[in-house]
Design brief:
With about 280 residues, chain A is mainly α. Chain A is built from 13 helices and 2 strands. Chain A has a two-stranded antiparallel sheet. With about 280 residues, chain B is an all-alpha fold. Classes of the chains: A mainly alpha (about 280), B mainly alpha (about 280).
């Protein structure tokens, strides 16, 4: 976008600005209220500032166990999906095998499939195969839905990569494995890292699929929040929700600040521009 | 290349076993019948599909369709206005405005729904004001109703509509707006006669990006709608988990996927036709 065309943009009419402001306020009001109220305690008729709810959350053994479960699931499934998905993206980029279009179709299906259908299909699949449910079934489910995102992100990077580097390495006599390890992987490394981070966040935040395929007593944090709020809303839950938001926000800020993530965003924009 | 096959095999095997397998099984399930004790009898039958199109089920599906449709329309219109405003402020501010709109993306769905429930709950400001102005209300229907479901859906899916429209406005030729203004177009006719037609393709894209996931939504109606608002996603879940009628649940799921395929198919046909013209 050149500077000249920037200047030629007439301002949107006033009602567009009003709609935008209203939307932002109405969108965030409940969340802001939730954050604020997790810092207050009602004594008689007045509200007093307190950190008590946060102390209670941090002291809760069941919540600590749920947090640990979330962490185990997120790290394991994101690692597995990143390894498998990166391999698949490289293979799709290089071509030369018959099942390419089939693999592409499968990973697209996983992206557009409604979560609830996937969750229930997987649940009945496990049931019919007599697989006991537990963290392993949750991990299997998470790897499946993260995989398509990994393929998407890494493929976007590969498609913008200068293929002449690979050609040059090949001409200089690099074998297929050497090419992969010494040329291809080093140049897509940032996008692999970004795919891992996104996978981690998707897994850490997932409620629906986890809710259906997890074993009894092995709740992750979002599932724990859901089952507790079905019983009743308490100030302690407010504090838990606030903490979870803070953790996600910190992870995201960290992810966006790392320059590697920005590279991927740029790489992701370019194929879009051609459309 | 020699390496392609071993590199792709794990992903292929994984997706075949954990995605294709379950989906094919659901399709087969939908043609089976329910046993006496909730088991499955593997005899070919179309009974479940007949029940999908029965009056009671069709009513729920229609309601679900209307809710998703109205959400998608509201999101597209709001998205268009927001994106227009966002792309005409100074470029310094744009990333911040974009961040404000995308924020719900970055928070957990359960937390957002929780926040809404808390907002209208006993200690929330809504009930506080209703009490302060002595407006009578029913606390049960206030904390679970179809308006809340609608609000939950819109606030969750709005970013899906704004982001593609924002991208479209960034590439939009604003000289068109300038020209229309010179010819005396007011803000309203500018929106309806110039911008909306020029951006009809991204508008349709935004509509479907909201409409399709809305149809299969489960958590929002479950937590904000109480037992009253039954949507397609809830109906499928109920058949699988509570009624233990897997063939019926599977038939509902397959019908939902069929609708998706139909919508996407028609859309790509229309796009292809426009491309040719």
């Amino acid at each position: 976008m050149s500077d000249r065309s920037e200047h030629l943009r007439p301002k949107a009419p006033w009602f567009a600005g009003v709609v935008f402001t209203l939307v932002v306020v109405v969108l965030h009001l409940p969340l802001l209220f939730l954050f604020a109220s997790s810092f207050f305690e009602r004594i008689g008729e007045t509200w007093v500032f307190t950190l008590r709810w946060f102390q209670e959350v941090l002291a809760d053994q069941a919540l600590a166990a749920a947090f640990l479960n979330s962490l185990i699931v997120a790290v394991t499934s994101s690692t597995l999906a990143t390894v498998i998905g990166t391999g698949a993206a490289v293979a799709l980029h290089r071509g030369g095998f018959r099942w390419g279009p089939f693999l592409r179709a499968l990973s697209l299906t996983s992206l557009v499939l409604p979560e609830i259908v996937f969750a229930l299909a997987l649940l009945s699949w496990f049931f019919l195969l007599k697989v006991t449910l537990g963290l392993h079934s949750v991990i299997a489910a998470h790897v499946t839905f993260i995989l398509s995102y990994v393929i998407l992100i890494v493929s976007a990077r590969l498609s913008t990569m200068d293929s002449s580097v690979e050609d040059a390495a090949r001409d200089l006599g690099a074998g297929e494995w050497k090419l992969l390890w010494r040329v291809t992987l080093p140049s897509i490394w940032p996008s692999v890292g970004a795919a891992f981070m996104l996978g981690f966040l998707l897994s850490f935040d997932d409620f629906l699929i986890t809710f259906f395929v997890n074993g009894a007593g092995q709740d992750t944090l979002p599932v724990k929040l859901y089952t507790s709020m079905k019983i009743g809303l308490t100030p302690k839950l407010n504090a838990l929700a606030t903490l979870m938001c803070a953790v996600s926000a910190l992870l995201l800020i960290f992810a966006f600040r790392s320059s590697s993530f920005r590279d991927v965003l740029k790489a992701g924009e370019e194929p879009g521009d051609q459309r | 290349m020699k390496l392609s096959r071993p590199l792709a095999s794990p992903a292929l095997a994984w997706l075949s076993f954990f995605l294709l397998g379950p989906l094919l099984m659901v399709v087969i399930l939908s043609f089976s019948t329910r046993g006496v004790y909730g088991g499955i009898e593997w005899t070919l039958s179309f009974a479940s599909y007949e029940r999908v199109f029965s009056v009671r089920t069709a009513q729920v599906l229609w309601q679900s369709f209307l809710l998703a449709f109205s959400t998608a329309v509201v999101c597209s219109v709001l998205g268009l206005l927001c994106a227009w405003y966002m792309t005409t402020v100074s470029s310094k501010w744009r990333p911040w405005l974009l961040g404000m709109i995308a924020l719900p993306f970055l928070t957990n769905l359960v937390i957002r729904v929780y926040a809404i429930k808390h907002f209208v709950g006993v200690n929330g400001p809504v009930q506080f004001f209703l009490r302060a102005f002595e407006i009578p209300y029913d606390p049960f229907s206030l904390t679970a109703n179809s308006w809340l479901v609608w609000y939950g859906l819109i606030s969750t899916y709005l970013p899906f509509a704004v982001l593609p429209l924002y991208g479209a406005f960034e590439k939009f030729d604003f000289q068109l707006v300038e020209a229309a203004k010179d010819l005396g177009a007011g803000s309203w006719s500018l929106l309806v006669k110039v911008i909306a037609p020029a951006l009809s393709a991204p508008l349709a894209g935004a509509f479907f990006l909201v409409f399709i996931p809305c149809l299969g939504e489960y958590v929002i109606p479950d937590l904000l709608g109480g037992a009253k608002t039954m949507l397609w996603g809830n109906l499928i879940t109920e058949q699988f988990l509570k009624a233990r009628d897997w063939p019926m649940g599977a038939a509902l799921a397959v019908t939902l996927l069929g609708c998706f395929a139909l919508i996407l198919g028609v859309r790509s046909l229309l796009l292809a036709r426009r491309h040719r013209e």
